Amino acid sequence: MKTTLLGLTFLTLVTGACVSADDHSPATVKEHFKHDFLIGAAIPVPHVNGLDPQADSVVSLHFNSVVAENCMKCERIHPAADRYFWDDADAFVKYGEDRGMAVIGHCLVWHSQLAPWFPYDEDGNYVSVDVLKERLKEHIHTIVGRYKGRIHGWDVVNEAIEDNGSYRHSPFYDILGEEFIPLAFQYAHEADPDAELYLNDYSMALPVKRDAYVRIIEELKKRGLRIDGMGMQSHIGLDYPDLKEYEKTMVALADAGVDVMVTELDMTALPTVQHGANVSDNIQSKDNKNLYMDGLSEEVLKKWNDRMADVFRLYKKHSDIISRVTFWGTHDGMSWRNDWPIKGRTDYPLLFDRDYKMKDFMVAELAGEETEK
Ligand code: GLA
């Protein structure tokens, strides 16, 4: 790679990566992991629309995959029974394509951010089994069909299982029972036979949740339905999950015959008040533990970087079974974790800081340094 002095200065400013003048060290994250897995980020609409040019620079430079942060969720893309809103999703797909990236669709069936009309009739009662099947089929066929051949893979069903291993009582489950999952996979495959299809959930290190998904994957496979991968969301913290259990889940999923994907990686630097990642569990508290409004202490910064280095060491160890690692956002300033599980805190969960500077653990990784254990 040839780097002009101007280019080098720009790269260093924007990424914080120590790009040496010698031509051997990979300067970008995607180049560094090119034999391991795809690497990417969730992209919000303002970014796609050019309102965060510095985020665009780091994403274009470092990542080879993008996922829609919100614009493909039911409430946004299908706000009324007879109305779809395509502008943002179209722009998102084009954004990824223009940059030659693997574009991930997120998500077709999810109880949260579901358009309010979807499971109800005019009287506010749940629709019948047949009506919900019809709605689900139309929804999935229309969206997946529109982007046929352009989406690398779809999160077909998001968050179907509770942390105790039982099925979540979503409208989909309450009306269709366990069948809603195979049906969704069938409809998605009908609409784009070449697209990869995934399950996705949080708290995947929990043994009962891991076992529940292994059973679902086995059932889908038994029925001859396409299932390519399982996303482990990975909204993690400094003291959770136990990386040994997290690793066991990776191995169990691979043994069940699917790719493992880390789909929503972010690690809070703030004290743990919440282990799961149920988006509706926002905590109200007077003491909001907003401890680092002016930046992290050296001690916490080191802890954060050391743990992220451990997490990536694990990903590299299992790069034969992991097909993608995606951060849930680009830089700390735009992360949802500033507002969850407690609103209005200053958090530091992503790969780039508020000045778009790459975090130390990755700078060291790119430089090939063996980070401290
Ligand atoms: C879940 C969803 C994502 C996103 C995050 C938090 O994990 O899968 O789409 O909403 O919560 O923002």
SSE topology:
Elements: H1 5-15, H2 29-32, E1 38-43, H3 45-48, H4 53-62, E2 65-68, H5 74-77, H6 87-98, E3 102-109, H7 129-146, E4 153-158, H8 171-176, H9 180-191, E5 196-201, H10 207-222, E6 229-232, E7 235-236, H11 243-255, E8 259-267, H12 298-317, E9 322-327, H13 360-366
Helix pairs in contact: 7-9, 10-11, 12-13
The protein binds alpha-D-galactopyranose.
Beta-strand share of residues: 5-15%
Query: What share of the residues lie within helices?
Result: 25-40%
Taking pLDDT < 50 over at least 5 consecutive residues as the criterion, the unreliable ranges are 1-22
Rg (CA only): 21 Å
Placed side by side, the strands forming the largest sheet appear as 1-2-3-4-5-6-8-9
Distinct ligands: alpha-D-galactopyranose
Give the class from helix and strand content and strand pairing.
alpha/beta
Specify the biggest β-sheet.
8 strands, parallel, barrel
User: What order do the SSEs take from the amino end to the carboxyl end, as H and E?
Assistant: HHEHHEHHEHEHHEHEEHEHEH
Span of the ends, CA to CA: 31 Å
Number of strands: 9
Average residue-wise pLDDT: 92
Number of helices in the DSSP assignment: 13
Shape: globular
